[in-house]
Amino acid sequence: MLSKEAPIGVFDSGIGGLTVVREIMRQIPNEKIVYFGDTARVPYGSKSKETVTRFSRQIVHFLESHNVKTIVVACNTASAYALNELEKEIDIPIIGVVKPGAKAAFQTTKNGKIGVIATEATINSKIYSQYIKELSPDMTVIGKACPLFVPLVEEGLLQDPVTDEIARRYLTELIDLDIDTLILGCTHYPLIRSTVAKIMGEKVTLVNPAYETARELKEMLTAKGLLQMEAPGLGSNQYQFYVSDTTDKFIRFANSIIKYGILSAKQVNIEEY
After folding, report:
1. Which residues lie across from 240 on neighbouring strands?
2. Could you tell me which of 44, 92, 222, 234 has the fewest CB atoms within 10 Å of its CB?
3. 75 labelled catalytic
């Protein structure tokens, strides 16, 4: 029997999933969260399906050891490669970031031309295209891998001429293809949303799967009677953060995007799970 008071488990290949955590904190503020960032093995975007699935399975075992009531795969690559396998293997609800983003893009587009920017693995999986075309086969979905965005974000170059130049190179061909909706298909990308918006122009609506995932999570918890209605008591350790490698950079980055004062993160040997 799952408990309302149990935490939500969230994981990502590194620190990008904190954009999903931020949205969960905003939209369902009474929930406890256990977050794991696989900072030792980031990035996932250049790894094989088998490797990403193995890593994801280990992390799910770790989160289950914290008695979480649901798991959010806050990584587009892991959602694309591992989610179907994980759903078969565990008894608690699990959601990824791809389906909510795909659904929102389908509901947003006016001309049926949707762009997706993401890691190479997510683009190569064609997972966004698959979900969108299930909703309507008439949709045109154009993917563009933007592998340099992740290291630029992780180096803190959010407002920087280098990021502007790289973004312009990546995005120009999408502008020429007359898309009217663009999915930010990697959890790091909302952190350079303003740069992407400036280059794409006002006619293109950006879809943030992190926001959409938090919305879907709230709906799912409500439907299953698992939504926590009361704020946790003082000293209840509402938010716990774990990483697989050095904590200092993670804490610095987390504090720059989540304004709740993340004072600590613990390093764990994820290979043990």
Report:
1. 34
2. 234
3. yes
